[in-house]
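look at this:
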Amino acid sequence: MAGICNLCGLPEELCICQEIAKEQQTAVISTARRRYGKMVTIVDGIDDAAIDINHLAKTLKSACASGGTVKGRTIELQGEHKKRAAKVLEQNGYRVEVR
């Protein structure tokens, strides 16, 4: 039996809450140097209450062919992946700002 969405009250197959949440958010992509001079791509500005951030991180990691983690409301990808991450996020319906 299909579940009912808590936000809109529609069946989960018809729910568009995540699509609306994607359009309302701006993902900010930046890079930083970490230990031993390693580059890390940071994706921030995504509300983890409306979006499954772990699934999004998994999608980004597989698209960028790199490792990564979720820390709070940010996704960290190992390496320099600004352009590739921005392309994947735009294809998934997010607004993207690259810094």
Summary: The domain at 27-98 is CATH 3.30.780.10 (Translation Initiation Factor Eif1). The chain has three helices and five strands. The beta strands are 26-33, 39-44, 68-71, 74-78, 95-98. The mean pLDDT is 87.
